[in-house]
Amino acid sequence: MTDATHIPLGARGWLVLFTLCGATFMTGLDYSIITVALPEIGRDLGFATPAALQWVVTGCLLPTAALMPLFGRLSDLTGRRRLFMAGVIAFTGFSLLAGLAAGPALLIAARVGQGIAAAAIGPTAMALMTSAFSEGPQRTRALGVNGALLSLGFVIGTMGGGVVTSGLNWRWTMLILSGIGLLVLLGAATVLVRDTRDSRPARLDVPGAILGSGGLFSLVYGITTGGESGWLSLPTLTSLVGAVVLLSGFLAVEGRHREPLVPLRLLRRPTVKWGMTIGLITFGMCGGATLLLSMYMQQVVGWTALQTGLGFAAEGVAALISGTIAARLISARGAGAAAALGLTAQGLGTATMAMLPAEGNLTLLLGTSAAMGFGHVLAVVSAVTTITSGLDESDQGVAGSLAQMPTFIGAIGVAGLSAIVAARAEALTPATTRAPATLGGLHTAFLAAGAVALTGAMVGGTVLRRDRAGEQEHATAA
Fold first, then answer.
1. What are the angstrom distances between the C-alpha of 327 and each of 122, 305, 384, 406, 426?
2. Is the predicted pLDDT of residue 398 greater than 70, yes or no?
3. Rounded distance between C-alpha atoms, residue 258 and residue 251, angstroms
4. In which band, very low, low, confident or very high, does the pLDDT at 474 lie, cut at 50, 70 and 90?
5. Which of 40, 61, 382, 408 is the most buried (most CB within 10 A)?
6. What end-to-end distance do the CA atoms of the chain give, in Å?
7. Spatial distance between the Cα atoms of 402 and 398, rounded to a whole number of angstroms
8. What is the largest CA-CA distance in the chain?
């Protein structure tokens, strides 16, 4: 692309930024706000079983994870603004349909539609952002705001879900999303005047799309349902083995295709590999620890859903602070050092949660969750900055999808930490009552999550700094 127009971070730049971040915030809000509303949805619409009710969440998650690489490549071929706006229109419409659903089948169908639309929004919003803002401090600042609002979306969804369902009803959680979608659409139509597409004839890697989407679908399905079905159950094993086979086939096809869905040269870049690794660690451990904190507040301390939502307030505030200073930290110390700092703060905050007592300690809860939220956003911004830096304009759509993937594959962290809680609680149950056994399981899982994050800080941060320096030296020599 020879006509790259980089919008300064002035009034128009902020409008562009908040339009794109608004879409990111909307999709992040969707996943958490619906989770809080699940019990009321089940009662109101008459879901037959808890497993059927869980498809309100899973039905949205699966298509998003499976289709994101496909939409990332399509955005490079057909135009990012066009696909972004189509995704926002579809998400807005399906959110309205979900809010008006009269039965389980229609609600789940609408959630699947939201998931498909979110798969189009994620990589295109990221690609439009990296194209609109120059690589360096300007782009890093934009990514910092985006990372903060993404995390804030999850936190506000948890808080707002309790408020909305307590004061109104669950349908407003979807109607609110529809309203946000209309605002994003208005902003996109007003300020997103620049479109990008690959100048070559559009060709789509159909075998790669089928294998990649099928493999990711099987992987995320196996991860999200394994805890309930049993990790050694036939459906779970079939799904996970199928994921390995399909993704192996995907890599083999991509290596031979002339215009692959995801070029292997991108996956071979050390900055992409390690950036995605850091993203996977921070999303997996933060997402898992957030779920465990919810269990602690409700099942151990006995808080209501509304009180539990408010208990995450410090995490949301810390996420915003981290997003506002991430650009300065990355510019001053580099993305590798910032990633290490972020994972260290996240790891220490999470590990210290093992000191939370059965009777509750608000100061300790707010302090540890704030440290986790601050470190998580800093690590996310560092990882995304690393993944998307130094790439051709024509690769930004694919890079955007790769940068978003850890958000969904990170569900493996949620599953792993939940399994630790269950195993430890079961071991403690014969000697104590349910609440202390659950607390013991939570403490063990918090320590495990902290250890993983701290290991990622030591290994990932060091390797990322070294490989980033090597790529810069190679580029200078070239």
1. 21, 35, 12, 21, 45
2. yes
3. 13
4. very low
5. 382
6. 21
7. 6
8. 70
Residue tagged 């005047």 (tokens): 193
pLDDT tens digits, 225-240 = 776 777 788 888 999 9
Show Cβ contacts of residue 291 under 8 Å, excluding neighbours closer than 6 positions: 414, 417, 418
Which helix (DSSP H) or strand (DSSP E) does residue 258 occupy? Answer: none
Residue type, 443: H
Which of 445, 457, 53, 64 lies closest to 288 in space, CA to CA?
A: 445
Can you tell me the distance from the alpha carbon of 30 to that of 156, in angstroms, rounded to the nearest whole number? 10
**Which one, of 42, 71, 66, 56, lies nearest residue 221 by Cα?**
66
User: Is the separation of the CB atoms in 147 and 377 below 8 Å?
Assistant: yes
pLDDT tens-digit readout, 4-60: 334 455 677 788 888 888 888 888 788 777 777 777 888 888 887 777 887 888 888
Given a cut of 60, whether residue 3 has pLDDT beyond it is no
pTM of the model: 0.80
Q: Nearest 5°: phi and psi at 168?
A: -125, -110
CB atoms within 10 A of CB 93: 16
Nearest to 388 by CA among 100, 153, 139, 90: 139
